[in-house]
Design brief:
- This protein is an all-alpha fold.
- The protein has one domain (about 25-330): Orthogonal Bundle (Hydantoin permease), CATH 1.10.4160.
- Helices cover about 80% and strands about 0% of the residues.
- The protein is built from 20 helices and no strands.
- Helix 5 crosses helix 18 (about 340-355) and helix 6 crosses helix 16 (about 305-325).
- The model has no long low-confidence stretch (mean pLDDT about 90).
Length: about 425
């Protein structure tokens, strides 16, 4: 590779820790994060929550969900920063070198599902707003998003620097118009249709970024220290994600004919419609490149390959899924992620933050971690069926972490008694 190519295509450290000499500034890592959740998809979630719960209770659900994400993602991020490990290496400490293949493989595959959903939403939104051909636009979007991902983590910084302020400015304009048209008192008194419980709404907020949030090591390993890592996470949760969800909630509460954030802007016509198209591709391009990067780093680590060739293969598969209509299963993805993913991160936190702070990769498979993951997922599943008014994601998270600590305590106690006997 030429020196010029090396400058553009930096080393991504797929199989080893990021050395301190290669770490990036707090601003750089923050831009990677802030451009991820400040997206149109988050406005859709915010609108759905406010439409169901009403304005104030919807805002409460958005706040609670984002605070949970901050605690969860922030802690995982600080842990990854300490060693400079990506998620695959980080999970190997807790689940074992071979055990992590299951965990990392699962999340790296699920996140490609998100790439497919967001790529499909690009084509769908363009078709709904302007009558364009869904298949052609989706294919073009997929190719563009793959190309951005190939530039690596550097591209995530740049696209975040462009996408977030553009979204914020256009969003402020849209919300200001919606509020001035309907009046603040009308929005504040919006009662919703009571189609969701507060717990389900909180789960929707958490589940929207629980997959990539669990894989935060892929991003936060580039931070120089824990403080900067936590700051970068804070720019995403609660700041960027809440801004996007509040925008969507305000549009929905204004009783607009187009409660969909993108359609609301696109319906204004003229130059505003052109800005809406730029926003759509820039915005969903940001989240797609982040998701594809997560998946590519994970699978490249598992396969012993370089990130970029893996990103091309996964991007092609994701684009095919998008064209096939995978984006239609948006809520299904949310429900699935809300049950099976939170216990994974919770077990890692319980292990590396509380019980084995100086542990490293040393075992092939750690069965206690898998048992705790299963218990957490089961708790989430039971909550889904028997206590839907609670947050499935939060229950699964807490159950996974506590059960791991209990299993570890029991194993240590049994070992001590055996030695004493």
């Amino acid at each position: 590779m030429s020196n010029e190519a090396k400058v553009v295509l930096e080393e991504e450290y797929e199989h080893s820790a990021v050395p301190l000499s290669a770490r990036k500034s707090a601003l750089s890592v923050s831009l990677v994060w802030i451009g991820f959740p400040m997206i149109i998809t988050a406005t859709v979630t915010g609108a759905a929550i406010v439409t169901a719960l009403g304005f104030w209770q919807g805002m409460l659900a958005i706040l609670l969900g984002n605070l949970i994400l901050f605690g969860y993602v922030g802690t995982l991020g600080v842990l990854s920063t300490k060693k400079g490990y990506n998620f695959s290496l980080q999970s190997a400490i807790t689940f074992g070198k071979n055990g992590s293949r299951i965990v990392s493989g699962l999340l790296s595959t699920l996140v490609i599902g998100w790439f497919a959903v967001q790529t499909g939403l690009t084509g769908s939104n363009m078709s709904n707003a302007f009558g364009t051909n869904f298949y052609i636009i989706t294919l073009i979007a997929g190719i563009l998003y793959i190309a951005v991902t190939l530039l690596g983590v550097k591209a995530l910084t740049y696209i975040g620097a462009l996408s977030a302020p553009f979204f914020f400015i256009l969003g402020c304009w849209a919300v200001t118009e919606a509020v001035s048209t309907s009046g603040w008192s009308s929005i504040a008194s919006f009662s919703g249709n009571n189609s969701l419980t507060l717990g389900i709404a909180v789960t929707m907020v958490v589940a929207l970024f629980i997959d990539s949030g669990s894989m935060t090591g892929d991003f936060n390993r580039w931070s120089k220290n824990g403080k900067e890592s936590l700051l970068a996470t804070f720019t995403a949760f609660p700041v960027a994600n809440m801004i996007a969800m509040i925008f969507g909630g305000l549009i929905a509460a204004s009783a607009s004919q187009n409660s969909d954030f993108f359609l609301y802007i696109a319906s204004k016509g003229g130059f505003i419609s052109i800005l809406a198209i730029v926003l759509l591709f820039l915005n969903l391009g940001s989240v797609c490149s982040h998701c594809l990067y997560n998946g590519a780093v994970g699978w490249s680590s598992l396969l012993g390959k370089k990130m970029r060739p893996v990103a091309i293969v996964l991007g092609i598969l994701g684009t095919i899924l998008a064209i096939s209509g995978a984006w239609n299963h948006f809520i299904t993805w949310l429900n699935l992620l809300g049950i099976i993913v939170p216990p994974i991160g919770a077990v890692i936190i319980a292990d590396q933050f509380f019980l084995r702070k100086h542990a490293d990769i040393s075992e092939s498979i750690r069965y206690k971690a898998f048992a705790a993951w299963g218990i957490g997922a089961l708790a989430g599943l039971l909550t889904e069926f028997y206590a839907p008014f609670l947050s499935t994601a939060f229950i699964a998270m807490i159950a996974g972490g506590i059960s791991y600590m209990a299993l570890s305590y029991s194993a240590n106690r049994a070992s001590s008694l055996k030695q004493a006997g």
